[in-house]
TrEMBL record:
GO biological process: nucleotide catabolic process; uridine catabolic process
UniProt: substrate binding residues: 230, 232
Native species: Artemia franciscana (Brine shrimp)
Pfam families documented for this protein: PNP_UDP_1 (PF01048)
Protein name, as recorded: Nucleoside phosphorylase domain-containing protein
A GO MF term: uridine phosphorylase activity
Span of domain Nucleoside phosphorylase: 66-317
Taxonomy, superkingdom: Eukaryota
Cellular component per GO, a single term: cytosol
Residues that hold phosphate according to the record: 107, 151-154
Family the entry assigns: Belongs to the PNP/UDP phosphorylase family.
Taxon lineage: Eukaryota, Metazoa, Ecdysozoa, Arthropoda, Crustacea
Length: 324
């Protein structure tokens, strides 16, 4: 929990790489950014989250981070920051308040609650992709060791009714392939969209018998669109029939897909590439086999959206050795 003023005034040091003096052994413990250019850069501006090595001592400010929790909207991630603050009993340093660290970037919201960062990622692969590059670099510059990344979000269930949790075992792109593909220098670059299976199981096992939801581990289809890209019939345009849609969703279900959302492939691919343990924990807003429109009430959705937060909070508390 850092005040904006602390962040922007905290360091006037010259731009210089923090790693030039490090041993090879020490470097191995840190985040793998896998970019030889970074080490040679005199300073690095994390433009979209309004942080940078030139003006801030990122290690002093973020070196204690253990968990990075991402979710779609600024409001939800602010709410999560308050929730996790109470859950872990974090007492902010005297005189500081819960501030949006990235407010002046005008793109994402970020809140620091002791060892937890709560960050909004917007909608879709390009939005979360930019954030992931900058969050992974933030972990690198801050010399954070072995952080765990979570996406806590919403999705459409396939064969799963609204209000239940799906934890992603593997993310598939819109062609049903377990990869994140990106044109780079005019050629297709492909990376596997893998998530940590042990982490997924640990999270599922934190579901209690009295919880009003079921938790399922299954594949996630990541679409680049909410409407046609997810086989909906209620977009502005549609050139397939209801039978085509049901045949497609049924085929996905047979292939082990249990939900559809819009960020999983890049989240899996970039965290896996960086060697970061990561999990995607989403609540279903509807069963897509029964319809397309999200008709639940706001109260119902608010309660449902708190469910992935509760599961992730239980995990964080266990890791911090705090009783549930
Ligand atoms: C889930 O919900 C959003 C679309 O409504 C999108 O960000 C996603 O993955
Ligand atoms: N988010 C999605 O991307 N799809 C849904 O159906 C619901 C939430």
């Amino acid at each position: 929990m850092v005040q904006q003023s602390n962040i922007s005034n905290s360091c006037n040091k010259k731009c210089e790489s923090q790693f030039h003096g490090d041993t090879e052994a020490r470097k191995k413990e840190l985040i793998h950014v896998k970019n030889p250019h970074l080490e040679r850069m005199p300073c690095d501006t994390l433009y979209h989250i309004h942080l940078g090595t030139e003006y801030q001592d990122l290690q002093a400010l973020f070196g204690d981070i253990k968990f990075v929790c991402m979710g779609g909207t600024p409001a939800r991630m602010k709410e999560f920051a308050h929730f996790i603050k109470n859950e872990i009993g974090y007492i902010p340093p005297y005189g500081t308040t819960l501030e949006d660290i990235s407010k002046l970037g005008h793109r994402y919201s970020m809140f620091k609650v002791g060892p937890v960062l709560s960050v909004s990622h917007g909608m879709g692969v390009p939005s979360i992709g930019i954030l992931l590059h900058e969050m992974i670099k933030l972990m690198y510059h801050a010399q954070v060791k072995d952080p765990v990344f979570f996406r806590i979000g919403t999705c459409g269930g396939i064969g799963i009714e609204g209000g239940n949790i799906v934890i992603t075992s593997e993310a598939l792109n819109g062609y049903g392939e377990p990869n994140f593909d990106l044109p780079v220098l005019g050629k297709k670059m492909s990376r596997p969209a893998k998530l940590d299976s042990n982490l997924a199981m640990d999270l599922k096992n934190l579901t209690l018998p009295e919880d009003p939801w079921d938790t399922t581990i299954g594949k996630t289809m990541c679409a680049d669109d909410f409407y046609e890209g997810q086989g909906r019939l209620d977009g502005a345009f549609c050139e397939y029939s209801e039978a085509d849609k049901i045949a497609y969703l049924t085929k996905l279900h047979k292939n082990g897909v249990r939900n559809i959302e819009m960020e999983a492939v890049i989240f899996g691919a970039l965290t896996h590439h960086a060697g970061i343990r990561a999990a995607i924990v989403c609540v279903t807003l509807l069963n897509r086999l029964n319809g397309d429109q999200i008709n639940s009430t706001k109260e119902e959705r608010d309660e449902w959206q708190a469910r992935p937060q509760k599961l992730v909070s239980r995990y964080i508390k266990n890791q911090l050795n705090l009783s549930s």
